[in-house]
Amino acid sequence: MSYTEVPGVRVPIRMWTDPATVESQAMDQLRNISTLPWLHGLAVMPDVHLGKGATVGSVIAMKGAVCPAAVGVDIGCGMTAVKTSLTAKDLPDDLSRLRSKIEAAIPVGRGLHSDPVDPGKLHGFATGGWDDFWSRFDAIAPEVRWKRERAAQQMGSLGSGNHFVEVCVDTTDAVWLMLHSGSRNIGKELAEHHMTVARSLPHNQGLIDRDLAVFIADTPQMAAYRQDLFWAQEYAKNNRAMMMALFQDVVRREFPKAKVAFDEVISCHHNYVAEERYDGVDLLVTRKGAIRAGSGDYGIIPGSMGTGSYIVRGLGNAASFNSASHGAGRKMSRTAAKKRFTARDLAEQTKGVECRKDSGVVDEIPGAYKPIERVIAQQKDLVEVVAQLKQVVCVKG
Q1: Active-site hit among 49, 180, 270, 326
Q2: Residue 302 to residue 348: CA distance in whole angstroms
Q3: Mean confidence (pLDDT) of the chain
Q4: 326 annotated active-site
Q5: Which helix (H) or strand (E) holds 396?
Q6: How far apart are CA 2 and CA 25, in angstroms?
Q7: Which of 92, 136, 168, 306 fits as disulfide partner to 350, beta carbons 3.0 to 4.6 Å?
Q8: Strands (E), 289-347
Q9: How many angstroms separate the Cα of 227 from the Cα of each of 88, 212, 236?
Q10: Angle in degrees, CA 117, 121, 125, rounded to 5
Q11: What tens digit of pLDDT does each residue of 21-43 get?
Q12: How far apart are alpha carbons 249 and 243 in whole angstroms?
């Protein structure tokens, strides 16, 4: 589908979904975003739903300003996937051992490595720039610097919530490795620090929603946020790369006879800021639950822990600021899902997937998410499907 334009306050809201199907609170949140004086454009993806700070599934393009709460507390959260030389017939009937090995290699939930992982000992991890990356830690917000040890130990760990590690099979029976995570606690600490600073600034006092407080260009607060933001985005990318290297090592050890080979890794952020140019204007584009889908860009759009996922290639649609959805999108809150569904429902909806099936992850049940097939169908002018995947192992925090 092409987009539907809904009136906003300063700019129209371009929506790649039927506005009538979007929850009223999310529509109110989008209208609030449209009041920002610095706003150049606002695009809404088909996985849209109410978010904290700003609407999930929104692309907020501003001139000379950025909203830290719109980026959110998981700076740089995103996806990584790689196709392997394994096929479905190489996998054992009982996948519980493989799941256990993955969980042993990659800490989940609030877990962390007992000692920082040495990237030099990992196959396929690019160590170029590693020392420079960590040397820049000393320049981040002083209030957060004491977290260095934990940040180092959490590098290469999953987290909780909707983060996951999966073994998937595509429609040609090829096996893929896929994972979803972000900047862990250090990203959260940096985000919360800067959101507090933004709310205190004079130019934000008259905003309709204090969560939409922004930093503006050519101020020390903006310079400080940009520095920490881009460092945290790099942390998130490195975190996923390290997890993928650990994941690949598990697979190599579990399938030694297969001499597993891996294609080029696909990686994409979906909570982040990028400097991009549209309509002849240099903009700061915040993708809050959206991926970049410039012409030829590869991306990953997952469903839920019991449904399929898609590898896509961007079509470069400038109307969406070269963006696409980051997933299926929730159709009910975590609280609502826990009230409606049981562990038995979870087991039923994740049949055939080796995964947790207990009450601790009921809020991630497939029934809490929109149908991924419909979400993909609504953005045919944004991306083309390269591969369709179905998970057979799913590790949750």
Answers
A1: 326
A2: 20
A3: 96
A4: yes
A5: strand 383-396
A6: 24
A7: 306
A8: 290-292, 298-301, 308-314, 323-325
A9: 44, 20, 15
A10: 85
A11: 999 999 999 999 999 999 999 99
A12: 10
